[in-house]
Amino acid sequence: MSSSASNPWAEPMSKPADEMKTYLATLPDFVEGSKRLDVRPTHLEHAAVGHKQGWIVTAGATFADDARTKMTGSWFCLREESLDKARERLSRDVYATGGAWDMSKATITPVAVAKH
């Protein structure tokens, strides 16, 4: 399952990262029956490749409360050519295909990343 063929983040970028648009995605897990823990090792492996390739600017988990006792989903700052392509790429992530994320509740918003 961890082959590059099944990893949407392993694909080379179509143009330089600084020419891509940037999006903030919030991807909630299914409330009942999320398969997050089942596919987490593969997701983390794939996401590391996505960061190296330049697709993923930064990302992490969302939690139910400050105690961080229960993960509720994920958030991504990612690069892509368009909003539709961002949604499509996220839909091919193993968290989406493996039953963790409820893509019907995902939000993807165009954003600008401040230069430091």
Care to describe what's here?
It comes from Rhodotorula graminis (strain WP1). It holds the Pfam family YCII. InterPro entries: Dimeric_a/b-barrel (IPR011008), Sec-metab_biosynth-assoc (IPR051807), YCII (IPR005545). This is YCII-related domain-containing protein. It contains three helices and four strands. With 116 residues, it is an alpha+beta fold. The chain has one domain: Alpha-Beta Plaits (2-Layer Sandwich), CATH 3.30.70. The chain has a four-stranded antiparallel sheet. Strand 2 and strand 3 form a beta hairpin. The longest helix is centred in the middle third of the chain and has 18 residues. The chain is globular. The protein starts with 20 loop residues before the first strand and ends in a 5-residue tail after the last strand.
CATH class: Alpha Beta
What is the number of helical segments per DSSP (H or I, 4+ residues)? Answer: 3
Q: Mean of the pLDDT scores? A: 93
User: What are the segments in which pLDDT stays under 50 over at least 5 consecutive residues?
Assistant: none
What's the architecture in CATH terms? 2-Layer Sandwich
Please summarize the sheet with the most strands.
4 strands, antiparallel
What coarse outline follows from CA principal-axis ratios?
globular
Question: Based on DSSP secondary structure assignment, what is the total number of beta strands?
Answer: 4
- Looking at the structure, the CATH topology is Alpha-Beta Plaits
Which class best fits the helix and strand makeup? alpha+beta
* Helix and strand sequence: EHEEHHE
Total tally of structural domains: 1
Q: How large a portion of the residues is in β-strands, by DSSP E?
A: 25-35%
In the sheet with the most strands, the strands line up as 2-3-1-4
Helix percent band: 25-40%
Computed CA radius of gyration, to the nearest angstrom = 14 Å
The separation of the N and C termini measures: 37 Å
Can you tell me the CATH superfamily?
Dimeric alpha+beta barrel
